[in-house]
Amino acid sequence: MEYPQPYTSAATYSATTPTAPPHPMPVAVVGQQYCCPHPVDLAVVRKVLTVADKFTVTDLNGNVVFKLQSSLLSLHDHRVILDAAQNPVVTLRRKVMTMHDRWQAFRGDSSDPKDLIFTLKRSSLIQFRTKLDVFLASNTSEQVCDFKIKGSWLERSCVVYAGESNTIVAQMHKKHTVQSIAFGKTNFMVTVYPNVDYAFIVALIVILDEINQDSSSD
């Protein structure tokens, strides 16, 4: 089955676009292989009492889909997302000396500007609830965001929208268990809507986690 061309522009959406999953064409940000014609539910497990191997993404059967590269020597502003075969999928870098907590995502283990996938930044300097803007690499003017994240990271209730519309492409919700609390883990679920790149959504979640940790340590 051949998919249409990947989503590349914020102009596709308008503020009046209704909420209507699934999206008619794949939102292939990282790659079309991560777009499914049905909803994808992922479980995120974050070990809060350890440094290494702290962030793992599985399917509902417990199979590892992605994990964050674990290294005691890795820089706080540099994260690599690996697939189940340990291949680098996305490299995340935080730009230093920026006021809006700006992050960039690159393909594989690259940091070359030609491999830039998207940029994420806070919508405003002062925030009581999470509000982040995401700009694809092709959106160089950054006048209108391609995706927006709203909600509360503390409550694990963030929602990812397409541009400035009300169209939801993914959403998070808590999943606490007795075992997760006892073993120092934070568990939550992510539902990625049909035809939406779930590798892209996982990259957004990793950045959200890093931003939240920064805010907690201030």
TrEMBL record:
Pfam families cross-referenced by the UniProt entry: LOR
Family label: Belongs to the LOR family.
PANTHER family: OS07G0230700 PROTEIN, PTHR31087
Name of the protein this chain belongs to: Uncharacterized protein
Organism: Acacia crassicarpa
